[in-house]
Design a protein that fits this description.
Elements: H1 20-55, H2 61-115, H3 121-173
Helix pairs in contact: 1-3, 2-3
Length: 175
C-alpha cells in the first residue's frame, strides 16, 4: 500500500490552537481536492466508456488490460483509503483523550481557585469569571480542532482516490 500525506495535518493537541480560519482552510482544501478528483474521474469515465463502446464484443488485449485495471484500481484505492482513515482516526482518538484529560485538569485547577477565594467577594467574582472564560475558550478551541481534524480525516481518505483518478486522467489523455 502507498503512503499518502495530508497537505495540512492538524492533530488535536492541548498545545496547539486550531483557529476557525484553519478549519475553514482545511474544509476548503478538501472541497478543492474533491472537485479536482471529480473532474478527473469524469474524464476517465468518458474515455473508458468510449473505449468500451468502440471495442465492441471482441476487445483487443490492450482494451481487456485497461478494463481489468479499472476494477483492480478501484478495490486498491478504496482499501488504501479505508486503511489511511482508520490509522488517522486512531491517532485522533489518542489526541482527543489527551486533550480531554488536560481540560479536566485545567478546569479542576480553576475550580479549586474559585473554591479557595473566600477572602473577598471581588476576588471570588474575578476567579469565577476566569473559570467561565477559560472553560468557554478551551471548549471553542477543542471544537475548532476537532472540526479541522474531521476535515483531515476526510482528506486522508480522499488522497488515494484522488491520486488514482488524476493519474488515470493524465495517462489516458495521452492515448
Amino acid at each position: 500500500m502507498k503512503s499518502y500525506r495530508v497537505r495540512n495535518p492538524i492533530a488535536i493537541t492541548p498545545d496547539s490552537f486550531s483557529s476557525p480560519a484553519a478549519s475553514i482552510n482545511a474544509w476548503t482544501d478538501l472541497m478543492l481536492q474533491t472537485g479536482e478528483m471529480m473532474s478527473a474521474s469524469a474524464q476517465v469515465i468518458g474515455h473508458r466508456t468510449a473505449r468500451m463502446a468502440m471495442a465492441g464484443p471482441a476487445p483487443s488485449q490492450r482494451d481487456r488490460n485497461e478494463f481489468n485495471l479499472m476494477s483492480q484500481e478501484k478495490i486498491e484505492a478504496i482499501t488504501e483509503s479505508a486503511h489511511a482513515m482508520a490509522i488517522r482516526m486512531m491517532s485522533m482518538h489518542q489526541d482527543a483523550a489527551r486533550l480531554a484529560i488536560q481540560q479536566m485538569l485545567n478546569g479542576a485547577v480553576n475550580l479549586m481557585s474559585v473554591a479557595s477565594s473566600s477572602s473577598s467577594l471581588h476576588q471570588s467574582g474575578h476567579r469565577q469569571n476566569k473559570l467561565a472564560h477559560d472553560t468557554m475558550l478551551s471548549s471553542a478551541e477543542a471544537v475548532s480542532q476537532f472540526n479541522t481534524s474531521l476535515a483531515d480525516i476526510a482528506q486522508t481518505g480522499l488522497q488515494p482516490l484522488h491520486a488514482r483518478a488524476t493519474a488515470n486522467a493524465k495517462r489516458l489523455k495521452k492515448l
